[in-house]
Amino acid sequence: MELEQEEGRGLSRRRVLGLLGLTAVGLAVGQAATGASSPAMASARAGASAPLDLAGGSASAAAWGGAVRYQRGRALLGSYLSLHGRTLTQSLALRRRQLGRDQRIVHVYYPWSDYYPTAHRDVPADAVLMISWKGTRLSKINSGASDHHIAKMARLMAGMKRPILLRWGWEMNGNWFSWDGVHNGRKPSAFIKAWRRMHRIFRQHGATNVAWVWAPNWNSGPDVSWNRFQHYYPGDAYVDWVGVSGYNFSRQSPKTLFNPIVKAYGKRKPIILAETAAVGHGPNSKAKWIKKLSKYVSATPSIGAVVWFDTDTQRGTRHNFRPDTDAGALAAYRAMVRKPRFSG
Question: What total number of domains does the chain contain?
Fold first, then answer.
């Protein structure tokens, strides 16, 4: 079955991200304390309480997105960058040279606890920081036992004084993380309760620079009725962006991966492809898939951001997710991200 094939090939990547939170942050934030900078550091930081208009118009003209505003038909380009032998600053510079443009979103991973950065100096000041914050057993949140920790993280993110896309507890409709439905009594309602509690605590502690990204996996594991992604949705008042994870592990098309989420939420929330990349299935296959993705995004105006899982260092998988594994793939990726569609 397609689900079994996809999970058989992709599960190791997810388990590594879940189990190795500090490693997953890895190169992406490793230089935060060194003061390393990039040319974009000259830009002024956005205020903590002011929504960032990413569309080039007035903030009031942007329809949705919370602290990270969105304009229909324009998309932000972003990446999780962890390239062998390179720091994040060096990786950003490489992609800038290859693509002729900067990343508008820089994606990092946080473990649930014991990691409290106060800044990301290697992330350009005019870029949006996307934080995928690992979860925990939902009972630890819903009991109130984690309130102090959540409040600490809320104050920390508020203190960064920059726009943040917060993707907490991603892929909750899978069976590979401690916060998913399978590991929490098959009760999606427990996830909703935890999400709303965290959302309230963040607001109470002034983290108005945080836009909340609810991001299921493209398919559910197990693929049964109680585990459908719709059952985990916290409600429009608690979600700013709807995200989705999807890779072509079993040669799925972008339409197959992303259309269910787009159809379910695209008329009322901006969509972010929060984790995606192409893996090779023979000569020129990666380039062909990137071209399909480009066409799909161009035809789907509710997609407001695409964040590539750009790494060749992911332990536990044989896949290379980089878009520059061959000349054809890089050319297709460059052509995609230089389109006016990615002028956000």
Answer: 1
